[in-house]
Design brief:
Blueprint lengths: L2 H5 L3 H7 L2 H13 L5 H14 L8 H9 L3 H16 L9 H8 L8 H12 L1
């Protein structure tokens, strides 16, 4: 992510992006969906584009399908996990769009409670 754009993000997002938990959550998603090599970088760019609001949430499934050649079901599952594990903590920044997105795919917000608690700790530190 370019420094100029990064610096425009709210401070709590910047803090979290520098935390160990951010890397752990990214690794979790990459391992779960078999992303290796340059695909790891592409996943990180997708998340960055969402945070910078250069990629709209309603474009995420199509982006995943095109980038990783996933079918609909796998792309929706990955999109739900990205939204829950990486973005749900910033639901206010996204005006509640993240929680609505997760539930629209049948996801359960409670599944991400421990991730959010860990992220809040990382921001506080």
């Amino acid at each position: 992510m370019e420094n100029k754009n990064f610096n425009n993000l709210p401070q709590d997002i910047q803090d979290l992006l520098y935390s160990d938990i951010d890397s752990e959550l990214n690794d979790f998603i990459c391992q779960k969906y078999g992303l290796t090599g340059d695909k790891v970088v592409k996943n990180t760019k997708i998340v960055s584009s969402l945070l910078l609001k250069n990629l709209l949430l309603n474009q995420l499934v199509a982006m995943i399908k095109n980038t990783f050649a996933f079918d609909d079901q796998k792309a929706k599952a990955m999109a739900t996990n990205i939204a829950g594990k990486r973005l749900l903590i910033f639901d206010d920044y996204f005006n509640g769009e993240i929680s609505r997105y997760i539930t629209s795919f049948g996801g359960n917000l409670a599944d991400y409670k421990s991730d959010i608690e860990n992220q809040k700790k990382a921001i506080a530190e």
